[in-house]
Amino acid sequence: MSDKELKRLSVLQEICDQRITQSQAAQLLHISERQIRRLLQKYKAQGPAALAHAARGFGPTLAHEKLTTIHGFDISVETLRSWMIAANLWIPRHKRLKRPYQPRYNRDCYGELVQIDGSHHDWFEGRDAKCCLLVYIDDATGKLLHLRFCEAETTFDYMLSTRAYIEQYGKPLAFYSDKHSVFRVNQKSKQDSQITQFGRILNELNIDIIFANSPQAKGRVERANRTLQDRLIKEMRLEGICSITEANAWLPCFIEQFNQKFAKCARNSKNLHRPLTESDAELEDIFTWQEPRKVTKNLTITYDKCIYMLEPTPLNHKLVGQYITFLEYPDGTVAIMHEGRKINYSIFNKLARLQQNEVVENKRLGAVLAHIQQQHEELEKQNKSSRAKKSMPSRKAQKVVIEQRNLNPVLDSCS
After folding, report:
1. Do 232 and 160 reside in the same domain of the chain?
2. Which of 53, 305, 360, 376 has its CA 20 to 30 A from that of 66?
3. What is residue 21's three-state secondary structure?
4. Is the model's pLDDT at 123 over the cut of 50?
5. Which Pfam families does the UniProt record give (predicted)?
6. Average pLDDT over residues 90-96
7. Do the beta carbons of residue 185 and residue 143 sit within 8 Å?
8. Are strands 323-328 and 334-338 parallel, antiparallel or unpaired?
9. Whether residue 240 is found in the same domain as residue 345
């Protein structure tokens, strides 16, 4: 056992001897009281062996590699696997206990919980590039509330889709999503202190977001994705739709047909969608990528390798040393705001070309790749034209060849 496991063993034994409480044990081991109770239950049932990590030891593949390289044994992996199974050192996959995913009842009211997800698929069957479909479906009724095709599952695309959904139906009580980086900060060092841009938007609109631990937990939207990958593809094929723009313009018709066939009535007829309030009126400014920036002594701020110069007014001079908010809209336009007031600015310098090996944010990856592709195409055209020029002989060279051909008969006569 490791030192960590031995320390847990001694602390759990002290709990059993009633020397310390579970709360004190949690503080000693820096874990929660719930985990203390779980460890204590396993310790009482299985003894000290329950505290050993389940992944400790060698599997058949790794054991075969070490026995071959270190000790020179000439045996197959499957033979070693059968020996380890016979000695109870390895459990076959088909005999392992599978985690049960118990069903849950759907929500009672329409708008109480909306499941959202992105489905990456070849939606146009090769007629266009692969893309992503953003799906919004009500948990209580199974009603499709919003569909939108986009190139990738990005924050800006979810901003556009969520805004369109809210303007049509109102604000739901909660969204139910997976742990995609759009919805949740997955870096352990930042989980307690930060939220994503999408999470900030929902917080301003007073909408909760719940994260599913597994795909089975958000089964309604997962099943809807499978149905859409069958029906939606065939419908677009019959309609002759070959692009994202055409598909997004036609999707409301499909949503209406889909809901007529598959949507059900909620157990409670109450609609929990909330209308937009006066504080929600500025949806255009809410659905933006917002980051704080510090104003320098020269009344400038820097964002995305651009220097923005604030208008030198007496009111703006008071902002020196303070943090103001930089807003980037989904259409690429930007704004600078402080305490609800938008500030006039001008751009001092902007790098037009990306340098090699620089770090590119995920939300800009599509534009960067398009820029790189355009550069490669231009370079290929230049190379082709230069190779064509090199392959064509000059007029002077052609003249020399002609003169040599005329000289050959004379030389033959002289000989």
Report:
1. yes
2. 53
3. coil
4. yes
5. HTH_28 (PF13518)
6. 85
7. no
8. antiparallel
9. no
What CATH number corresponds to the domain at position 118?
3.30.420.10
289-342 pLDDT, tens digit each: 999 999 999 999 999 888 999 999 999 999 999 999 999 999 989 999 998 899
pLDDT digits (tens, 9 = 90+) for 186-227: 876 655 568 999 999 999 999 999 999 888 888 889 999 999
Instruction: State how far the Cα of 311 lies from the Cα of 317, in Å rounded to an integer.
Output: 9
| The overall pTM is greater than 0.90 | no
Tell me the average pLDDT across 253-272.
94
Coil/strand/helix, residue 324: strand
Q: Domain containing 17: what range?
A: 1-56
Measured CA angle at 216 (ends 138, 204), to 5 deg: 45
Number of domains in the chain: 4
Which tokens sit at 44?
Answer: 């009482």
129 and 74, same structural domain?
A: no
User: Would 3 be classed as within a structural domain?
Assistant: yes
Whether 163 and 310 share a structural domain: no
Q: For residue 114, what is the DSSP state?
A: E
Question: Quick one: angle between helices 33-46 and 3-16, nearest 10?
Answer: 90
* Same-domain check for residues 147 and 30: no
Q: Where are the alpha helices (DSSP H) in 240-394?
A: 244-262, 283-286, 314-317, 365-391
Asked if the structure places residue 390 within a domain, the reply is: no
Burial 229-262 (b: 16+ CB within 10 A, else e): eeebbebbeeeebeebebbeeebeebbeebbeee
Q: Rounded to the nearest 5 degrees, what angle is found at the Cα of 339, between the Cα atoms of 338 and 342? A: 50
In a domain, 139, yes or no: yes
Asked if residue 200 and residue 124 are part of one domain, the reply reads: yes
